[in-house]
Batch of 4 targets.
Target 1
Amino acid sequence: MTSQPPPARRSGRHSQPSRMSGITRIVQTDELPDGVNALASADGKTIIVRASLDAFSRRGAMREVMTTIRRFPRLALYPAVAAESIRQLLRRTSVAVSGAGQAVQQVVATAGDHLGGVVVAVTAAAGTAIAVTATVGASPPARHPAPGSSPPPAAHASAPSPDRAVHARLSAKPLSRLGVFGDGPGFAPVEQFAAATHHQPNVVLYYSSWFEKFQTGFADQISASGAVPLVQINPFGVSLADIAAGRYDGYLISYADQVRSFGRSVIIGFAHEPNGNWYPWGQGRSSPASFIAAWRHIVDVFRAQGADNVTWLWTVNSIGEGVGPIAGLWPGAAYVTWVGIDGYYVRPGDTFASVFGPTITAVRQLTSDQVLISETAAGPATGDQPGKIADLFAGVRAQHLLGLVWFDKAQDKGPYRQDWRLEGDPAAIAAFRRGADYLPGS
């Protein structure tokens, strides 16, 4: 509820580039044989999925393809497809693409009843001939040519480089994360916060509006300080349904490529605080189903691009008056790495138990993933800022959470937008220092 307003929308940023590494096109068609629900080009640029599937099944088929591409770059077809289905596909594509007919027929003739492992076909998608690979169950025994004979000619298909993907995993050790959102542009506010508190943050938060690029330069500064960037991507000005439908895949692919090229760990959240009603994607303004579909689609796109250096932070607001439940917004264990909870001490009676307790209980009913207090502060309106800070750290320790991210920004629009900064308040800074001393991993 405290993130930055979106910048003016820039037109044309979501258009899909004509040439880009990784998946750049998703084609929906029912021109697939029985038993085949999705396949992908061997060069990793196109996914073809059965159009008549419902949205859930279509996403599932695409996830299988994307997972296969990531794990085995030369295999890219929906798994467990019957051999006869593959032969149908090969025969159909040999007719559809006349220039490759002879090579396809050679593959069909060679495959026989032992069809399995890898076969290569050529099909047409959106008017372009695309090489595709297919995997069907276990690989057959190796075939050896008869003495004096030559092996059948090999069919060739381009494939993405095996080391195209970037992998990075952050430790989920409890009490290991101390983060900050700084009041002002650039890295200077982070340095000022570290100097005031005598603790160097190892997570630095910033907010990113839709169509905004990944801030590689800022991320480099964060990484050089020993910290990890935490980016909250907020879909201002676009609909969740359009995101889930792939309308903005060009933007997402470009962003994922930038994150992958960064090469180090990045924590990413999307549409944070969806159980509140103050954002366009929030409670009563967008459906839980569209939030889940958009979240899953974004994760799928990043994984397909090989951006496996992302820790996915599902971020909800602390449950309270006017804030909805969270269970219906859960994207599923396969799509979340950590859980973030945003919550603030705003009144004299606020405690860790009242601000965060109900939400932690609700999270524990959904997942055992580690929890990060992903946006928090104690304001002067509490009447005892040092005491509330001590209570915050004590609660994090008692619950064995990952840690916390302090929102160190001055605001002045009511109880939920106070001056949250520590700088200039010696007692508050002293309380923060003492609390942070008990985060041994920070």
Target 2
Amino acid sequence: MGNRRRARVIICPNPRCKQEIKEPILLNNLSTIPAGYYYACPHCLIKLNTYVYMRGRANLPSLFLTALGSTIMIWVGWLVWYDTTTWDKDIALIFFGSRTGEAISLGIGMKVIHYFLISLVPLLSGLLTFLRRRGKIIESHFNAPAGTKG
């Protein structure tokens, strides 16, 4: 039980309400076409700025993926730089050549091009996840009624 996360408390932006919101409600707005939904204060039902509510740990997975992809990409860049400056290899030989028997072996027949492609997956997925969530947050902020914007 001591492992439970502490609930994030926000204050309702409505000047008449100003109550603490531990968990907002998800309100279905059937008066618009198409019907939409948004987070609302459980006391006065005013639309909440999604950015304020989701700001906490929403970007943690995308940050982790981007950092992982960047780390692998930096390592590949260092390996290419090392081989070109120390051994005078050309880029094609570095990316597509075998490294078996060299001081920096990549294991199981892997080539530098494989690590480069592997690094693109978490890097691009992390960036796209971040941008997609950011777009949704900005969109929900612009769609908020004028009185609820911060």
Target 3
Amino acid sequence: MLVQWIERGSPKAQIRVRFPGESPKEIKLKSGFLALKGTIISIPGRVTTVMKETLEFLAELAVNNNKEWFDANRARYQACRDRFVAFSTEYIARLTKFDPTLEGLQPKDCIWRINRDIRFSADKRPYKEWFGCFPATGVPGQPKTWGKKSMRGGYYVHIQPGQCMFAGGIWDPSKELLKALRTEIEANYEEVEAIMGSKSWKKYFAQDFDSYWGTGLKKVPAGFDPEFVHAEWLKHKMYTFSVPLSDEEVISPDFIDKITDIAKAAKPMNDFLNYTFEEYGEFPSRC
């Protein structure tokens, strides 16, 4: 919720808050809470309502993916998007506390627009049937290469009925970046083993990278040791790792806490993969 004003002089400060798409409400903060004008605060129970309404809207959009229906429900969409922006604002703020490289990142950098680019696609559905937020750093000093346009590993949250998930790592790398990632993994596999062997990693992730994005190569690529102890790692075409999330988990009051905990577990592997950019320099970004 967006804090609009604060009334001082009482043990429990009274504030006025406005949740996107709703009228202002006045509440009293419990002892120990801190609020600043213009900031986003989390009100217990609100995530349940917000995500439930968002999933319901997206489920209806999936069976009515046309301009006429969307125009008739544009106000609902805007309310859902505003709420997802508010969620993303809090999510990024939490990430920045343990990953300061995200400092300055804004929700608009991380969230995709609802319209699909159908110019060269056989699939003519005009709208995406999901919301996604991808906080990630990019080329230092070039903000337009951050967030959804970044080639680096980040902390993706995908909201779609029956297909919600968290994903980290590097998706769809260029040929040059993919070779560099494989080289780093082969040379420093003990680091990857240590990360995958940690308690926080095993709480959420598998002992391998995702095969979700394809089956990978049948053989170890040329130039790499076919007898490498983790040969299967070198066959991947992408280096991502993900956690499926049920709709019930997404609408639960502690969803923001859980997704933050998953992101913390993802950070060491993101750091390892992102070190490739320091070692080899920059690679093309999605600009």
Target 4
Amino acid sequence: MVSLVLRRVALAGFVLAAMAVAFASCSRSIDLGIDTGSVVAGCGDGTCGDNESCSSCQPDCGFCESCGNGSCDDGENCGNCVKDCGVCHTCGNTMCDAQENCASCPADCGKCASCGNQVCEAGFEDCTTCPQDCGVCKGCGDHSCGSTENCSNCPQDCGGCNDCPDGFCKGAEDCISCAPDCGVCKNCGDGKCQSPTEDCFSCPKDCGKCPGCGDGICKGGETCASCQGDCGVCSFCPNGMCESFEDCANCPDDCGKCKPITCLEIVACALSCPLDFQANPPNFSLTCVSTCLAKGCANTKFFVDQVINCAIGHIGDCGGMGMGQIFGCIQKKCGSQFAACIAAHC
């Protein structure tokens, strides 16, 4: 009896598999009586062809007349009117599925050629399809990934797409969807918070920090680009670029191998770092000094240590002068340490 059941199950499985192969080989789909709104070939090339329309290829032919009225009407779907119908549930699975296109799901289908030209083309682009040109939509930034939001048009609510951030600006990534990899948008840093394309998330340099940024915890949609104070710097090793706070010691793949320098060169390097001897206590960049020290061999590091310890001990005697005078004073006070440093070798 059990054997008969197993044979029937196996036969049923075989029949289903055969049917699947048959359908796949014939490129057929099961008709469920639902308009899938499949995107036509060539959609996204910037030309509304004879076989294209606003419903089958919104990026080339523009939005249909009813799109944007707040109701997902007949003929509208997630592929041609995200604003009314919401984001396709398949968007973000790394495959450009039926209904998806460069406007409705750039994360899967790639970015439309016209998006990113700094012109929000009325009738063709809006905040849901190209926030880089049109700015993010009104509800973006409320810490809730809404039905019309995705990782491309509102990363602060929905998180970064796929591999963002990984140190490489690739595919459909841009200054809005993945600033940690692609950098901030073109006008960010000019001192003007230009709405709607700039806000506290995309350009904190011009628009100020978003609420919650600065509490010491990198949380929610915060990134190294939107909240450096909480999330750190956008430096990734290795990615072919020697970025902020990377050097030959901590990222030789990007910055090259360290070339040993002499004791005196290390001291000169350290003294060229930002220093303010007149402050109490003195202000200096520990990171800059440590980068200089990393370039020396064990012997030179020892003698550098002697010079720096001596210099710190005489800061009170040499403070209140110009930088050149301070260096001369320290050199005089620490003559023997400098002499040993000059003579040091690896």
